[in-house]
Write a structure and sequence with these properties.
The protein has 406 residues and is α+β, with helices and mostly antiparallel strands. 16% of the residues lie in helices and 21% in strands. The protein is built from nine helices and 19 strands. It has a six-stranded antiparallel β-barrel. The protein has a six-stranded mixed β-sheet with strand order 4-13-12-16-17-11, with no helix packed on it. A three-stranded antiparallel β-sheet has the order 14-15-19, with no helix packed on it. Helix 2 packs across helix 3. The longest helix is centred in the N-terminal third of the chain and has 14 residues. The radius of gyration is 20 Å and the shape is globular.
Length: 406
């Protein structure tokens, strides 16, 4: 049975539930009307989702979009994330705000399993080894590309995943290409010690970059598949065996201006600032323990862009979903980072040998202690064998601060 047929059957819901979901989406689908065919001006680096109110559990924008989908069929397509593009005749090409209303049970275990990896591959001719990284780098590392690192075989994280495991999970999103998956990491919120609801991931896991807008139905699932079940077993698994800590919807999301302006569908465009932060809330309740309290820990983001020679090792984490992997398990690679220059006008990136593939994008790069996050996975080569991530600096810190204050 095809994935599309499975989804079609799974989405046949009672009429009352469907109408209720459609009614909510009719009011909150977008924050602005469709733009011109060229996409209009780029959105701001961080944006917020609609806030709930006491009467309707949502706040409406001051001016409703003129071209909201109105038929039951169109609204059901929106609900299920099945729009095919953002042309003005369909949905909107580039939303100026991140809008992400909760849809109960949208991301069930079967739909999660079927999501494809959101990966970006780089050709050798995109790598640069000259020029200057400007004043947002660390001087000696800028404009430098070290020799290609040796391949490091990704290793499965010890099962089962517990509160002692790195605070990593999967990020799911609906895109014009269909449901995709990335990875993310619970990170500390200085304003709420021990009670963070913040997740770090890659910019391309929440926003399409210069060719589009914000993705839809973005959620974080910490400690996905803690028992390491196979995909065949996941098809009929109980929710607690797939999402033991629940499904957490992105209430707010932000990424860098550089990613929004320069981020490419494929290749290295925008990779040097390919970073995003989400503030999340649980799907099944309006109040209760924070994400950090539920997961048991969070990593502290280091925004100081440490020099490569000062870092003994980094360990990217993620759920690779592209062959030879299937997205079912969390994997890691550990190695001494090297330098990679994609854009000489931007800070040089970190690079380590690693065989992880698409789906690992956005996964946190942790220090040997596991307590600090220095980067997130952004790109890898067409032939595989290494990963690169941005050095998280001033622009990323600005995004983090804006979302943390929401």
């Amino acid at each position: 049975m095809s994935a599309n047929l499975r989804r079609s059957r799974r989405r046949s819901a009672p009429a009352v539930a469907t109408v209720a979901a459609v009614a909510a989406l009719a009011l909150t689908a977008t924050a602005c009307g469709p733009e011109e065919d060229n996409g209009g001006s780029a959105p701001s680096a961080s944006a917020s989702a609609a806030e709930p109110d006491a009467k309707h559990d949502l706040n409406l924008p001051d001016e409703l979009p003129k071209d909201l989908p109105s038929s039951l069929k169109d609204l059901e397509k929106w609900r299920n994330g099945e729009w095919k593009n953002w042309d003005r005749d369909e949905w909107l090409r580039q939303a100026k705000e991140f809008i992400n209303p909760i849809i109960d049970d949208l991301w069930d275990p079967d739909r999660m399993k079927d999501a494809d990896g959101n990966d970006r591959k780089v050709d050798d001719d995109e790598i640069d080894d000259g020029g200057s990284g400007g004043d947002n780098g660390t001087g000696e590392d800028e404009g430098v590309t070290d020799p290609t690192p040796a391949r490091v075989t990704a290793k499965p994280v010890r099962l089962p995943y517990t509160k002692d495991t790195a605070p990593v999970g999967k990020v799911f999103m609906d895109t014009p290409k269909g449901p995709l998956v990335c990875s993310g990491t619970v990170v500390e919120d200085p304003a709420h010690p021990g009670k963070s609801n913040l997740v770090a991931t890659a910019g391309h896991c929440v926003h399409a970059g210069k060719s589009g807008g914000w993705f839809r139905n973005v959620v974080f699932v910490p400690r996905y598949n803690p028992k390491g079940l196979s995909n065949a077993q996941l098809e009929n698994a109980k929710s607690k065996d797939v999402a033991p800590d629940g499904v957490w919807w992105a209430k707010y999301a932000g990424t860098t201006d550089h990613w929004i302006d320069e981020g490419a569908k494929a290749g290295g465009g925008g990779a040097s600032q390919d970073f995003a932060v989400m503030k999340v809330r649980p799907e099944d309740k309006k109040s209760g323990p924070s994400l950090q309290e539920v997961v048991g820990k969070a990593a502290k983001i280091n925004f100081n862009t440490p020099r490569v020679k000062s870092i003994p090792s980094l360990t990217p984490h993620g759920y690779p979903a592209a062959p030879p992997f299937d997205g079912a398990k969390m994997l890691t690679c550990t190695g001494k980072p090297g330098r990679l220059t994609i854009d000489p006008a931007q800070p040089t990136m970190y690079r380590v040998g690693c065989t992880m593939t698409g789906g690992s994008s956005g996964g946190g790069w942790l220090t040997a202690s596991g307590r600090q996050l220095l980067s997130v996975t952004s790109i890898g080569p067409v032939q595989g064998g290494w990963l690169a991530g941005p050095r998280i600096g001033k622009e990323a810190k600005g995004v983090f601060d804006r979302i943390a204050k929401k």
